[in-house]
Write a structure and sequence with these properties.
homodimer, BirA Bifunctional Protein, domain 2, 2 domains, eight-stranded mixed beta sheet, five-stranded mixed beta barrel, 12 helices, 30% helix, 26% strand
Chain lengths: 429, 429
């Protein structure tokens, strides 16, 4: 039975079997030292005799299987354990020259790394990034399950876009023209209305946006929830804050090693401040920044607000609530304060990581707002129908998984938090 | 603070607030009885005076908010509790005529139900189906996380198909031609090879198949796992059996009420039998069924084998292993017994719910098999590269979530286990 590198400690003096990839080989004459990597970490193998013969011929990144005697000794640098190898078998060889320098001694060009992403992912950093990402997803589901949310799976092939027609990828669906879903927005609202009341989904969304920045992906993973019978958007913000804090707590608990690798001192804010959009001009003025009335926040504005929140409220996170209704999608609930809405964003470390709000539940208001945005309500009949049969007030939000992961770990590019990014130019690997 | 219908018991004599949908209204003169439905179940509301006035005017399926005094009394039919209403507020009215008979007294035409799926989903059966489905997904993730698998998110927009070119939906990806992923097959293998070793994903897959049967969907949810350093396909089968049994166990623990609604006596088989393909002719002969050598199993063959396994091995589940290599995708590991493979299916109650196997890890064999299937290996360079840098023996499998759910609950059509099905004719709602 194969054991993992982090289990060796328990087998001092016993014979064990292991498998993994060859990270380094060091030949010191009669002995050959291998550092082997498996999914749990690194381990030193000491080979002599026949095993040393085999070891000398190994190219880096070959996969191997070994048996040997486990030795536990504090003085051994790599985790205080090593294996005195008895048998060493080459499972699958590797070409001698790797397309990416895994040891990370020389930095490989960004695009080249992503061209050879499978090899690139063998580095320590990506392994850590996706360990954190896995924690985030599990925590999101855990807290929402606990709070009575049902997991849903909504269609990604759709007949009509949710946010506007320009950023849709067209799909040929047999004889019909269809599109890829930009978000599960309509469907999660419909499922609130169909009696589930509280729903969540973790699934891919697709945006045909021409942007090609370090913070855009054309396919990304959206962490959505939506809840019924809410009083207003503040109740959604409260749930959003609760979910986020739980996710951060779990990362701190489970990913100490990974946070250390990236030098991250993750702090859970006591309370995430909620700024009202109509107070922004005053705030920007006090900092000496220009801000055009009723305009969208630029990347620079977002960064400024994060610094402001950090200094004033000791929170790297900040909600901006009540955006002008003009700037939000047609399904956003208008505020009683004219021209404003019950839509919010959550900014973190200079980037928008959540978009949410209370939604319209009155079908007449919804039709009016769809028309005002230039849509034909008839195209949305499948969605509008929901609202004619007792649709309660409701709201929700969506995290971008890759952005959240990337900002948590202070990565420079959201692609680093994506296994195989899809962007303006890239559909492979 | 709103409470749920199943929490009323704890508040005997106290004032409580609730919200939900009006399922029935019964006017008996001075009193009006409402059965209200929230996400936790049904509850009786007793209205008099002003509340009774409001109640009389309610159309079914309107959403309401009430406050009142909780009364616990064993003699009350509906769960031993009721609310003596003090205030009743109409939150959102419903049109008087519903497109689907939610009470289920008259059966609504199948396609009509799915045209008005949001209303259809308010029935008791769909609510139960998706409660079970949610348990299945959580259990799948739980057991795999426990066994050291990492959750992955692979791209759904891809450059090349995995199983053959005919069943791909084309996507216009800016200037490029791309496709929707038929499965995460290539990517989950690549992530095994990139050092994660053990990975899983729950995500949509897309099949442009012309079939229009009760068991086909053109978009469905695939529960995938893939594991490295396996000896052979039997180790994958073992993991598959372990995962399935854990899922069944969790459904039995958490969904007693739902299983009862569908009259299901769910049994976990002690051991799921594994039939070898080359033994099938003998088995079919013994039952008096025809079976052409080296042919694929028909729906009738699959049903026959399930009955056979049920009678002979007391298992409603049966693995069929070692399909002819001709019948399996190019990435399937060939068996040492010529013409056969290390690919398997899991049949349940007459339907294939899992497809899996050991995969090729030798790049030369893979190129040969791709060519033999009529592919140009150059189109798969992004995938083949993985195999040149120490790719260990590996294998995996995929459950179809909707099929598994539907067969567990003995539903007649896989669409019943899909929130919003996509089939040959349907892209809305």
């Amino acid at each position: 039975m194969r054991i993992l590198s982090n289990q060796v400690k328990k087998y001092n003096g016993k014979k064990v079997a292991l498998a993994g990839w060859v990270q380094t080989v060091r030949d010191v004459g009669s002995l050959v030292f291998i550092i082997m990597r498996d999914r749990a970490g690194l381990l030193q193998l000491i080979c002599k005799g026949e095993a040393a013969e085999t070891a000398r011929k190994l190219s880096l990144e070959s996969s191997i299987e070994v048996t040997g005697i486990a030795k536990v000794d504090e003085k051994i640098k790599l985790g205080g354990v090593e294996i005195q190898v008895e048998t060493l078998v080459l499972v699958a060889g590797s070409l001698p020259k790797l397309p990416v320098d895994i040891a990370g001694k020389t930095e490989t060009n960004f695009e080249h790394r992503f061209d050879h992403r499978v090899i690139d992912l063998r580095r320590e950093e990506p392994q850590a990034i996706f360990a954190v990402q896995s924690t985030l997803c599990n925590a999101f589901r855990e807290i929402l399950n606990k709070d009575g949310f049902t997991e849903i799976h909504t269609p990604k092939i759709i007949a009509t876009g949710t946010e506007g027609g320009t950023s849709l990828f067209p799909v040929k669906y047999f004889e019909k023209q269809a599109y890829l879903a930009q978000s599960p927005q309509f469907y999660k609202q419909m499922l609130v209305g169909s009696g589930f009341e509280r729903v969540f989904e973790i699934a891919p969304v697709f945006r045909a946006e021409e942007h090609n920045t370090p913070w855009h992906l054309n396919e990304y993973v959206s962490l959505d929830f939506e809840m019924g019978f809410v009083r207003d958007e503040l109740q959604v913000i409260k749930q959003s804050e609760k979910v986020l804090k739980y996710m951060l707590k779990k990362v701190i608990e489970k990913n100490e090693k990974q946070l250390k690798l990236f030098n991250i001192n993750l702090k859970i804010p006591k309370k995430i401040p909620v700024l009202k959009y109509w107070d922004l001009p005053k705030i920007f003025e006090s900092i000496g920044k220009e801000f055009a009335p009723m305009s969208d926040l630029s990347r620079d504005h977002e960064a400024t607000l994060c610094t402001y929140a950090s200094e004033k409220f000791d929170s790297e996170f900040v909600f901006v609530n009540n955006y002008p209704i003009e700037l939000r999608p047609a399904y956003t609930q208008p505020h009683t304060k004219k021209k404003y809405s019950r839509g919010f964003d959550l900014l973190f470390s200079g980037v928008e990581i959540v978009s949410g709000g209370q939604r319209v539940h009155d079908p007449a208001v919804l039709e009016k707002q769809l028309t005002a945005k230039g849509f034909n309500p008839a195209d949305f009949e499948f969605y509008l129908e929901t609202f004619r049969y007792g649709m309660p007030p409701h709201g929700g939000q969506a995290f971008g998984l890759e952005r959240l992961t990337a900002r948590l770990l202070k990565l420079n590019n959201v692609r680093e938090a994506t296994f195989f990014p899809r962007d303006r130019n890239r559909v492979t690997p």
